[in-house]
Amino acid sequence: MEFDQLLEKIVKDGHTHAKWLNTLSFMENAGARKISKCEHPVSVTLIQLKHAAEEHRHAYYLKKQIGKIDPELCKTYQADELLAPVATRQYLHSLDVKACRYLQTVFNLSKEELKYAAYLFVTYAIEVRADELYPVYQDILTRESSKIMVKSIILEEEGHLEEMIHQLNEFSPDWKLHAEHILMIEKELHDQWINAIAEKVAQLDYA
């Protein structure tokens, strides 16, 4: 099933759509928490603080959108309120672990340096993905005349990507070479996540 077809199916079923929004909210929240964990105790940058704050706001915004479907749905991030909860929880964590392993091998960094490098490369990979995912989602929401909107998130994610590229240019002149490797890792994990969601959504046909 193509990604846009999968999203169409999700958006047409209220309960599943609420879980999808909650799943996105969970991932935005997890991303914000990981950015905060990567902060240097004293040398944290303004951009890093901005990113953490905006990712937290995205998590809140997506969670609040669920109320347009049914205010009683998906009040927590418990497994039964997420789509493909195991794959969802593993996605960002696995990307972080695998990226750290690669970055440590090629750059030989201290603990604090590795945390910052992971913030740069993992956030870059996630922003590249967000720049693909949210516009497709918004197009389907518009087509289905949904009350849900993610246009504000799209604009901020585009800004994040530009900021990450600026920081990566300062970090290493050959960052693109290493970013390609991280993007390959992310693609594999993303495909696993989407496949797990597709399997769950396919079960709706037999429910």
Question: Would you kindly provide a written description of the structure presented here, covering whatever features stand out?
Answer:
InterPro entries: Ferritin-like_SF. The protein is an all-alpha fold and 207 residues long. The protein has one domain. 77% of the residues lie in helices and 0% in strands. It has helices at residues 3-12, 14-37, 46-65, 85-107, 111-143, 151-171, 175-202. Helix 2 (14-37) packs antiparallel against helix 3 (46-65) and helix 4 packs antiparallel against helix 7 (175-202). It is globular, with a radius of gyration of 17 Å. The mean pLDDT is 94.
Structural class estimated from helices and strands: mainly alpha
Structural domain tally = 1
Radius of gyration: 17 Å
Oligomer: single chain
Mean pLDDT: 94
**Helix tally?**
7
Order of helices and strands: HHHHHHH
* Estimated helix fraction: over 70%
Shape: globular
Number of E-type strands: 0
Distance between the termini: 19 Å
**Approximate strand percentage:** under 5%
Low-confidence runs of at least 5 consecutive residues: none
Largest sheet: none
